Inverse folding.
């Protein structure tokens, strides 16, 4: 059975219990809920605010029921539509006087042709009227028909409400008046058509449509409400009980969002959890009234409960509100809540919590969430402070770009909002003008805030006009110098469980409020030793909030409006541009530039140097730098124009202005000198962090096959080399250089007596069995210790048979019984140098290339004859290591050659490598790097483990060679190993970038740089890993990647400024801008580390291992 609204109202008037209960429940829900003016749905609320509403009794006799909700949702829209209904042009056929006719159609001519007469004049002579088209604006539209039907039905129900409940709504008279108007009479009847676009999209008609639909189901909804009386009573009792627990002040309640459903009368907590209470010993006072002020205010928003001072001389005070804001996110649903009057903040995993402190010190404080929080905070401030003047204190070490969000939001609410450095406020709070000894008198303000301790020097300057206008200042104003961050003065930033308010952590554990710690005291003597500070007369250690100084400054400034009582040295500002073949700073604001802090008065800052825009770019983006900091500011100056891309380079004049406290303090305009395009204003943009999970990585050069080794192209030639044959012949040559080995000897018979030649020398001839021709014997060709006279004809001799131009002669002539043995050459210093040079020239290249990429003579593809000969050569090399007469320098070269064989290396070489890693004394990092190969043998794995466990500079050098020796070496390192290597690599780069100018010129520094950068380039191949944890390690958005990119930039600056060459084994094909002198290796790393798309065009052609 359906219960109508009329019956409920009549029974309510008759004091029927069910009607009183039903309307009482609806009234309770409507009073504690906030409805969305657009959709009419109940909005989410914070728990504390909701409980406060529940404890407040109704202060009028108006019953808020479903009809009230419908009326309130449509009230404003109905009143607006009554004043301005939608209209639409219409046309109709009408009989019009001839002078009023403006348009004819076919029907007009048909009607006219049926009238008597031959001409138009004759047809109209008797009756000067004709059928014509009349156009007019009509309000008889579907949306207006619905409006009329809705308000007529609504008026009937409002009359019923008036008669039964005794409340007459103001809207009723407006509806009745409008229904009697000509406009309403001109509107036809609503035919229950489907809604058109206007009803669905128009702001006011959409609300009328929603209200109309609710009216159609009103009786059904009331019937459903009546069936749920008992369940709804329990809901009301439950929340009233929670409200009493909160109101008595004996319990803390953790703030959370509440979700409301009006139709089902539901009040849901986040994640369906009951409110969390904690009993406290000391009773809290509820419903604390927040006083308002109409005086100018100086406020410090860097604390959770902002401190402020006003011109009422009451001293500094704290706002009772906690400036906390949360966004709770679950799937696609997000709820924002304010925690101004909350007892405790619930740091739920689904909640993002932002405090007023975070607006200043959070690293990502320019995101949309922080803008929402700042908007909420400034609205709250505007309710507490009614004066347009609001001076807000800014930490000295933050620049205008980092304060953009809070400054913009405060400017939107307060017409005269002014930032004031904390150091300046401190000086006006504590410095006595009478103690100023003269111009140059300086005070240093030490401030520990935001995790940093800064020292800011403030210098007194004299102005004679100020001395006349404001004698109390003695004519001195203050000039703030750039702040200096004190090393080692880091303090803790209050975040998370460190809030000055009770919190509930993610594990639902209660934590008490954390009170701010007292800042450290810095001695003046310590500050004077800091080079950037120097001498000063007085030191202020900020331990109290300096808001009183800010309001004192404002009061003094009002007396001399046109003479600023302080000046500011704005920080040095520059961008990086390509100049003289390298990235260089282009200074926009020079060091020592001073400005007057006056709102609404832009100050021109001269930029003397012209700026050249390169051609061919769709837009330009220049990273910003402050001071001498090597790291960019996180902002960039971007240029966009329809004139881009430019067809040729354009030289521009830069016009820079600074307006203190404005939304955009710096305004930079590029004006072309040839006026080829209109001036372009740069926009300052936060460097966006784009999360890239598949950034490009350097591809390893394609490994050669054993067949490829037979035909390796020669440089600058069409010929090829057989590296396998090269290895064997080079080893034979090395043996010849090291040993004297006997040549084959022949035995012969002297057949003639000794004769004398024209030079007086003796000669004869001999015969032997191997040839038929006689062999020429000369006295010069006998071995040492023998003379020609020791032999006569018919005697047998032995010799080395030589042939020249078809004739034969003998060398090393001796007795027939003479024999020679193999012997080592005398290894003096010259021979040792020649041997080492020969090894490096003839053996390094072929051996390194044949055994790279994990190739071994045990491979099935390796030619059998080559493998057999190499096995013998390996034994030969091992034997050389035991020769005492061979110099250690030559043996070192032999060990290196054996190390290059990795898997094929003999036991003696393996032990040599193990000894170095076990004792952490690495003599030759390159040898160990080559010996690791593909890390397939157990001894190689052991060596790698020891190197990772002790990550010295030598270990990193080993990895630098190993990672470009074998394609899959990087895969032998697990995630933890890679993190350790990256950490050590970062520290090594920091030390490299901190080297003195003298060390930079040293060859070892350049080699260290190349090894470090080559290792980093190789580690970027982790981006290709199938392991998600490893794949993400060096993605551009990772902290370690950003730090590495910064250090690479620092190294690049050093290399380019010092004009020193960096030679790399890794051969890179890369396209660089014309005139860019950045070494290929550094340029490639810049692209890879930043995730630049240009990295996709980089090609690693080869790895040169030559000495």
């Amino acid at each position: 059975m359906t219960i109508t609204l009329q019956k409920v109202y009549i029974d309510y008037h008759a004091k029927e219990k069910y009607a009183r209960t039903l309307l009482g429940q609806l009234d309770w829900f409507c009073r504690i809920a906030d409805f969305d003016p657009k959709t009419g749905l109940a909005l989410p609320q914070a728990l504390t605010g909701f409980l406060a509403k529940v404890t407040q009794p109704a202060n009028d006799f108006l019953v808020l029921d479903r009809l009230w909700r419908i009326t309130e949702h449509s009230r404003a829209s109905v009143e607006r539509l009554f004043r301005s209904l939608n209209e639409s042009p219409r046309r109709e056929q009408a009989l019009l006087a001839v002078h009023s006719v403006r348009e004819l159609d076919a029907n007009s001519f048909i009607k006219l042709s049926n009238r008597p007469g031959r001409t138009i004049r004759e047809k109209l002579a008797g009756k000067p009227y004709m059928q014509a088209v009349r156009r007019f604006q009509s309000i008889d539209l579907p949306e207006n028909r619905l409006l009329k039907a809705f308000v007529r039905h609504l008026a009937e129900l409002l009359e019923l409400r008036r008669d039964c409940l005794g409340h007459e709504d103001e809207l009723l008279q407006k509806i009745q008046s409008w229904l009697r108007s000509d406009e309403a009479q001109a509107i036809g009847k609503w035919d229950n058509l489907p809604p058109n676009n206007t009803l669905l999209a128009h702001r006011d008609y959409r609300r009328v449509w929603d209200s109309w639909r609710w009216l159609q189901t009103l009786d059904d909804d009331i019937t459903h409400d009546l069936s749920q009386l008992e369940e709804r009573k329990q809901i009301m009792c439950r929340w009233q009980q929670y409200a009493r627990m909160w109101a008595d002040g004996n319990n803390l309640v953790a703030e959370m969002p509440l979700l409301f459903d009006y139709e089902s009368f539901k009040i849901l907590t986040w994640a369906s959890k009951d409110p969390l209470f904690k009993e406290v010993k000391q009773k809290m006072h509820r419903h604390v009234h927040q006083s308002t002020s109409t005086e100018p205010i100086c406020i410090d928003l860097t604390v959770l409960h902002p401190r402020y001072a006003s011109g009422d001389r009451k001293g500094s005070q704290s706002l009772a509100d906690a400036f906390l804001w949360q966004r709770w996110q679950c799937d696609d649903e997000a709820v924002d809540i304010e925690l101004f009057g909350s007892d405790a903040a619930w740091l739920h995993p689904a909640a993002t919590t932002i405090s007023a402190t975070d607006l200043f010190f959070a690293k990502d404080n320019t995101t949309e969430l922080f803008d929402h929080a700042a908007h909420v905070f400034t609205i709250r401030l505007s309710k507490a402070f009614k004066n347009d003047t609001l001076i807000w204190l800014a930490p000295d070490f933050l620049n205008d770009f980092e304060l953009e969000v809070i400054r913009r939001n405060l400017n939107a609410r307060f017409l005269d909002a002014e930032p004031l450095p904390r150091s300046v406020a401190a000086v006006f709070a504590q410095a006595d003008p009478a103690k100023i000894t003269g111009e140059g008198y300086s005070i240093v303000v030490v401030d520990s805030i935001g995790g940093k301790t800064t020292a800011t020097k403030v210098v007194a300057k004299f102005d004679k006009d100020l001395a006349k206008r404001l004698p109390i200042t003695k004519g001195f104003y203050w000039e703030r110098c750039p702040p200096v961050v004190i090393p080692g003065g880091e303090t803790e930033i209050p975040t998370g469980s460190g809030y000055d308010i009770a919190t509930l952590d993610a594990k639902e554990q209660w934590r008490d409020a954390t009170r701010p710690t007292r800042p450290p005291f810095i001695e003046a003597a310590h500050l004077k030793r800091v080079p950037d500070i120097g001498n000063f007369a007085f030191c202020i250690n900020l331990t109290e909030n300096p808001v009183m100084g800010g309001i004192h400054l404002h009061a003094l400034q009002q007396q001399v409006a046109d003479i600023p009582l302080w000046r500011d040295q704005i920080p040095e500002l520059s961008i990086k541009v390509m100049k003289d073949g390298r990235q260089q700073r282009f200074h926009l604001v020079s060091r020592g530039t001073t400005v007057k802090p006056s709102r609404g008065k832009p100050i021109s800052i001269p930029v003397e140097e012209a700026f050249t825009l390169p051609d061919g770019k769709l837009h330009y983006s220049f990273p910003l730098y402050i001071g001498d900091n090597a790291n960019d500011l996180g902002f960039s100056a971007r240029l966009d124009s329809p004139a881009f891309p430019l067809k040729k380079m354009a030289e521009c004049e830069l016009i820079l202005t600074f307006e203190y406290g404005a939304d955009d303090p710096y305004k930079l305009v590029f004006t072309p000198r040839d006026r080829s395009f209109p001036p372009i204003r740069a926009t300052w943009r936060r460097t966006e962090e784009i999360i890239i999970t598949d950034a490009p990585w350097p591809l390893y050069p394609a490994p050669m096959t054993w067949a490829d080794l037979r035909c390796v192209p020669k440089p600058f030639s069409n010929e090829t080399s057989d590296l396998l044959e090269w290895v064997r012949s080079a080893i034979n040559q090395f043996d010849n250089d090291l040993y004297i080995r006997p040549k084959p000897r022949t035995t012969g018979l002297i057949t003639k007596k000794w004769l004398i030649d024209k030079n007086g020398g003796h000669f004869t001839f001999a015969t032997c069995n191997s040839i038929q021709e006689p062999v020429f014997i000369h006295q010069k060709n006998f071995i040492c210790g023998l003379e020609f006279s020791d032999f006569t004809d018919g005697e047998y001799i032995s010799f080395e048979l030589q042939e020249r131009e078809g004739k034969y002669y003998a060398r090393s002539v001796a007795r027939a019984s003479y024999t020679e043995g193999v012997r080592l050459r005398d290894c003096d210093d010259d021979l040792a140098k020649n041997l080492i040079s020969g090894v490096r020239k003839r053996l390094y290249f072929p051996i390194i290339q044949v055994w790279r990429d994990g190739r071994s003579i045990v491979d099935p593809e390796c030619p059998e004859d080559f493998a057999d000969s190499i096995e013998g050569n390996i034994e030969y090399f091992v034997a050389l290591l035991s020769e005492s007469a061979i110099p250690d320098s030559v043996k070192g070269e032999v060990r290196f050659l054996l190390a290059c064989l990795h898997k094929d290396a003999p036991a003696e070489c393996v032990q040599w490598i193990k000894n170095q890693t076990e004792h952490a004394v690495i003599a030759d990092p390159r040898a160990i790097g080559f010996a690791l190969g593909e890390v397939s043998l157990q001894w190689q794995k052991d060596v790698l483990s020891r190197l990772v466990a002790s990550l010295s500079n030598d270990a990193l050098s080993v990895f630098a060679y190993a990672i470009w020796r074998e394609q899959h070496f990087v895969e032998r390192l697990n995630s933890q190993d890679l993190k350790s290597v990256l950490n050590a690599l970062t520290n090594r780069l920091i030390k490299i970038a901190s080297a003195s100018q003298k060390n930079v010129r040293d060859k070892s520094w350049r080699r260290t740089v190349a090894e470090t950068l080559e290792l980093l380039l190789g580690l970027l191949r982790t981006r290709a890993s199938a392991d998600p944890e490893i794949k993400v390690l060096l993605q551009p958005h990772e902290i370690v990647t950003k730090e590495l990119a910064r250090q690479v930039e620092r190294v690049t600056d050093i290399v380019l400024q010092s004009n020193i060459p960096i030679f790399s084994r890794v051969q890179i094909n890369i396209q660089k801008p014309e005139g860019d002198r950045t070494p290929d290796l550094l340029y490639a790393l810049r692209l890879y580390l930043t995730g630049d798309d240009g990295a996709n065009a980089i090609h690693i052609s080869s790895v040169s291992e030559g000495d």
Notes: The chain has a mean pLDDT of 88. The chain has six domains: 5-86+142-229, 88-138, 297-567, 570-686, 708-824, 974-1107.
